[in-house]
Write a structure and sequence with these properties.
alpha/beta, five-stranded mixed β-sheet, 8 strands, about 25% strand
């Protein structure tokens, strides 16, 4: 497929969607400094051949369609569904934390005894961080995951490999859930919990 008819910035939008699956119009505008809603809509219309979008409340959410995936050589097919808001929250946190360059989504963490798949892993201020997005899952599932993080900490080998045990960061939806998560994580050495409304 010819790739010379898109401007560099337009290609960068497609590549960002390849990495982050779903982005709102506002997230795209902020990251690429597109300015007004009108200008953002103009830019997105220029590459609409490569995009699909869905309305979620007041926001438009974009993702790569078949042509877009072919253009950036992406094999992963995105499907609008229950995980949509979860992904948008994760990507919002990436922007809030200054777009860490080593950010990786859906990473399996293992010390041969215990396994955890974190929503994202990244480093900040010379420390590794694991991000967990708490959107629709039950607190019971969250506690089960926290138990596995606690086992990874207690086992010790992960901290030995990384030179420290990473900070576990939660992004949640309410003050109550924030308190519940902090209480559940009290055996971990470093924990931060944010509410989505605090970072937007």
């Amino acid at each position: 497929m010819k790739k010379n008819h898109l401007k560099p910035r337009e290609e960068q939008i497609l590549l960002l969607l390849k990495k982050f699956d779903f982005l709102t119009r506002d997230q795209i505008a902020r990251y690429f400094k597109l300015g007004t809603k009108r200008n953002t809509n103009y830019v997105l219309r220029r590459i609409s051949h490569y995009l699909s979008h869905v309305r979620d409340g007041q926001q438009s959410i974009y993702y790569l369609n078949k042509e877009g995936r072919a253009y950036v050589e992406c094999e992963k097919v995105r499907r609008k569904g229950g995980n949509l808001q979860h992904t948008i929250m994760r990507n919002e946190f990436w922007m809030f934390y200054g777009c860490p360059p080593d950010w990786r989504n859906e990473i399996k963490i293992s010390d041969q005894k215990t396994n955890v798949v974190c929503d994202a892993m990244f480093s900040k201020s010379l420390r590794y961080h694991f991000l967990e997005v708490d959107n629709l899952q039950t607190m019971q599932k969250n506690r089960a995951k926290i138990k596995r993080y606690t086992e990874l900490y207690t086992n010790g080998s992960l901290a030995q490999t990384l030179k420290h045990f990473p900070t576990v960061v939660w992004l949640t939806t309410t003050e109550l859930r924030k308190k519940q998560l902090l209480e559940a994580c009290k055996e971990l050495p470093s924990v931060k919990v944010y509410i989505i409304n605090e970072i937007i």
